[in-house]
Amino acid sequence: MKMFKSKKSKVISAIIVVITVILLVPFPVGYKDGGTVKYRAALYCVTKQHSIVYDPLTQKDGYDIGTTIEILGFEVYNDVKYYSMQTLKELNK
User: Fold this and answer.
1) Could you tell me the pTM of the whole model?
2) pLDDT, tens digit, 9 for 90 and up, residues 73-86
3) Is residue 11 part of a domain?
4) Which domain covers residue 51, as residue numbers?
5) How buried is 54 (Cβ within 10 angstroms: 0-12 exposed, 13-18 middle, 19+ buried)?
């Protein structure tokens, strides 16, 4: 009887480990918009954004650069900012 409980607890432990891995291991998805990569897992999503955008106010191209973090579908962090081409050239000097 004791061996049966031990085997049962090992199976339960293995199932818990598999479920944890499925929920927490991210899978990267790349976008062809300038370099955005989204890391998606079942419980969270991290987006490293680097996308080419058009600013209608200045009528010029620029980039949205930053990171967004979502946990259980709720955005908890967002530092994505727009940078014009001129600003990026000045920053890289």
Assistant:
1) 0.75
2) 999 999 999 888 77
3) no
4) 26-91
5) exposed
